[in-house]
């Protein structure tokens, strides 16, 4: 009998953990027990809003066989691979690491980019030290427990002390072409004083038989940002609309360090992203910036928590959703300031714009504060697109659809501006392709080059304005 989410059990986990060290195999056992005992939505506050029931456990097939067959690489991925050859990064197709490229100048600095299984085998001391210093509570989320228990593959990135990488590390992940789903565990470690950017692209070929098989990508990302380090993690999710994507993200940020999450969500039938930024040390900073664009009957479930355990820490979450047709978005956020969080400043915001009457969005922000002398605020809004703005733009020569696109661009601009010109160009490229109904995959084509040149030009102009303004001399 093939293994599905409907019949997964502890025996399957024993199979997948056969080559693991004892400490990891034991952790997997604890995690699968939690997965089997928990509901899809642990919190009763959110359960009535959740679309997690769109996941069909009986249709999500997992392949736990060791050393399975090699998967074909699509033509589009071949082109992405050619571009990867010039950079530092890794290509993962299904549970197989298909390609690893590390620039010589990067490798000389001791940077490690490899598969998680290889890391557990060859760099067990680093992986174990991270997991022991930042233990997970498997009872927090059912799917996080699944990911910790059943991960078949994943990526390990290690940036040594005081190493500053100017170019990003690229992770390109695609589901396999045989309809099987994937469970991944990614670990990123930035040692003291290090600085790096990791860019993750998520794709799926589509099953073509969604009534029987539902392809899913389930991932756990853990980042360890040591003292005075700065790590940026960028995710561009462009999977097919017959798939599901569930991602649990944990950032552990130490003294005077900074973690930046930048996310663009465009594909899948259901995306469920949960981000916990845990500021462990004094002066730690975390930010989470997410852009969501939904069409048809897509559903996006976004949760972002800022957890302040250290003094004088800073946190900011900004999520903006654009919902078209009958798509849905749900934003859940919480600021938690512990007893030792004196001097904390934290901000949480979720805003949505609805382009059609059938679209829907809900926001549920919250605060939990256990100390004094802090600043913590949150805001949320959901609104239909302004007909007066559309009328004004159409009188200036734009079509109604063109007017909507300009309004959406202005709505998202304040967030995309935070991501730098290259990431902003990629996001604009994916938005443009989605609006036109084109395939969602980054390509180094003429359209991308034009968008990239425009964004770089705008970035230079903005710099010039600030340099010339009297307040900034």
Automatic annotation (TrEMBL):
Residues 178-411 form the SUF system FeS cluster assembly SufBD core domain. Residues 101-171 form the SUF system FeS cluster assembly SufBD N-terminal domain. GO terms for biological process: iron-sulfur cluster assembly. It holds the Pfam family SUFBD_core. It comes from the Archaea. InterPro entries: Fe-S_cluster_assembly_SufBD, SUF_FeS_clus_asmbl_SufBD_core, SUF_FeS_clus_asmbl_SufBD_sf, SufBD_N. Coiled coil: none annotated. Belongs to the iron-sulfur cluster assembly SufBD family. PANTHER family: FES CLUSTER ASSEMBLY PROTEIN SUF (PTHR30508), UPF0051 PROTEIN ABCI8, CHLOROPLASTIC-RELATED (PTHR30508:SF1). This is Putative FeS cluster assembly protein sufD.
């Amino acid at each position: 009998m093939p293994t599905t989410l409907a019949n997964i059990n502890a025996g399957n986990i024993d199979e997948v953990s056969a080559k693991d060290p004892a400490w990891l195999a034991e952790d997997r056992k604890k995690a699968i027990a939690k997965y089997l005992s928990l509901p899809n939505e642990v919190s009763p506050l959110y359960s009535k809003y959740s679309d997690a029931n769109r996941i069909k456990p009986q249709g999500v097939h997992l392949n736990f066989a060791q050393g399975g067959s090699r998967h074909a690489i699509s033509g589009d991925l071949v082109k992405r691979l050619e571009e990867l050859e010039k950079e530092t990064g890794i290509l993962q197709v299904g549970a197989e690491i298909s390609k690893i490229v590390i620039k010589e100048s990067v490798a000389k600095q001791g940077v490690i980019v490899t598969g998680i299984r290889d890391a557990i085998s060859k760099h067990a001391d680093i992986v174990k030290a991270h997991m022991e210093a930042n233990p997970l509570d498997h009872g927090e989320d059912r799917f996080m427990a699944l990911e910790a228990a059943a991960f078949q593959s994943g990526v390990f990135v290690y940036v040594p002390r005081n190493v500053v990488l100017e170019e990003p590390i690229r992770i390109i992940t695609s589901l396999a072409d045989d309809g099987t789903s994937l469970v991944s565990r990614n670990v990123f470690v930035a040692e003291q004083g290090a600085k790096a950017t990791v860019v993750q692209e998520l794709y799926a070929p589509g099953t073509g038989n969604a009534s029987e098989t539902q392809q899913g990508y389930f991932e756990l990302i853990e980042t360890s940002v040591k003292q005075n380090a700065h790590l940026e993690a960028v995710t561009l999710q462009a999977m097919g609309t017959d798939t599901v994507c569930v991602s649990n993200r944990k950032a552990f940020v130490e003294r005077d360090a900074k973690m930046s999450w930048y996310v663009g969500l465009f594909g899948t039938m259901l995306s469920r992203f949960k981000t916990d930024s845990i500021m462990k040390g004094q002066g730690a900073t975390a930010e989470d910036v997410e852009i969501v664009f939904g069409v048809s009957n897509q559903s996006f479930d976004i949760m972002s928590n800022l957890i302040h355990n250290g003094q004088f820490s800073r946190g900011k979450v900004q999520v903006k959703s654009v919902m078209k047709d009958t798509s849905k978005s749900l934003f859940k956020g919480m600021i938690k300031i512990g007893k030792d969080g004196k001097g904390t400043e934290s901000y949480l915001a979720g805003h949505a714009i609805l382009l059609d009457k059938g679209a829907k969005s809900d926001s549920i922000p919250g605060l939990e504060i256990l100390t004094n002398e802090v600043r913590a605020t949150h805001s949320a809004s959901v609104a239909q697109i302004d007909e007066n703005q559309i009328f004004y733009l159409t009188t200036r020569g734009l079509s109604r659809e063109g007017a909507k696109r300009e309004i959406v661009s202005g709505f998202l601009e304040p967030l995309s501006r935070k991501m730098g010109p290259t990431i902003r160009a990629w996001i604009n490229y994916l938005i443009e392709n989605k609006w036109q109904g084109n395939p969602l995959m980054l390509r180094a084509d003429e359209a991308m080059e034009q968008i990239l040149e425009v964004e770089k030009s705008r970035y230079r102009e903005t710099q010039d304005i600030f340099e010339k303004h009297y307040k900034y001399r």
